[in-house]
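The records we work with from here on pair a chain with its fold. The integers have meaning only within a learned vocabulary of local backbone shapes. A complete example follows; check for yourself that the lines match position by position.

:::
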Amino acid sequence: MNYIVFDLEWNQCPYGKGQENERIPFEIIEIGAVKLNSERQIIDQYQVLIQPRVYKKLHHRTREIIQMDMKLLEGEGIPFYRAVKEFLKWCGEDALFCSWGNSDLLELQRNMKYYGILQLLKGPIRYLDVQKLFSIDREDGDSRRSLEYAVDVLEIEKQQEFHRALADSWYTAKVLMRLRSEIVDTFYSIDCYQNPKRKEEEIKVFYPGYEKFISREFDSKEEAMADKEITSSRCHLCRKNIRKKIRWFAAGQKNYYCLAYCPVHGWMKGKIRMKKTEQGRVFAVKTMKYTTEEEAMEIRTKKEEIKRKRRARKKGEK
């Protein structure tokens, strides 16, 4: 297996969000990538400029960050569909995508869908979010630092300017090479731009400390919350069903929480995030995670606070 550490640069509508193409809010104008072998050693690199077809003028912020102009892109760039086909061929079949953060893989697929070639990259896609891995390995697992911050912490020599696709791929690869193998091999991410559609495609993953479940599609949140697998509560350590002490409750439009107790391993906190597809349907991402007594109390407090606000709102409506 090879690691494909890639980075994208993209442009957006120069005239503001009101005039953007909703199907492709960010148009990719550069792909850069570094290939690492199974030992995480750099063995190759890839870079290509892409001719813009949706936004023919660079947004001022894009121009400031990447230091490119439209003349360069039009003169040296190639059409997106050709660039992607060449890139995927260069990646090879036994490849694991890696990126700094979770946005590059999303925008790659969104651009591919716009040009009608999404079938070349099947999802959901397992990948490595190196930004997250850096946080797990070096910090608290929750912080999300800039690439340059990680480069400084790891004392990586700055040989190139940041904010070009190949340079950022190279720096991301250098960060990945310095992370512990047990972290890299364990905490992979799953991109769900191409989410599970049917029950047999649903995803269940066990990580150290928590379990993640990604459901199939439903017509509504209510239909999703009626599904037994989505609302079940299991201890991620002994994998047994456990009793809920606080049933699932809504906190906002997208999130639901519950609190359950395992007689062997203690408190487990459940969270469901409802995600919307481009077609208006929904799917659920559920996590069940070991939690402390103090954090369990915070869930109780959160529920009581939501109930209090609802009562106050109803009282005000009378």
Notes: The two ends are 64 Å apart (CA to CA). The chain is about 35% helix and 30% strand.
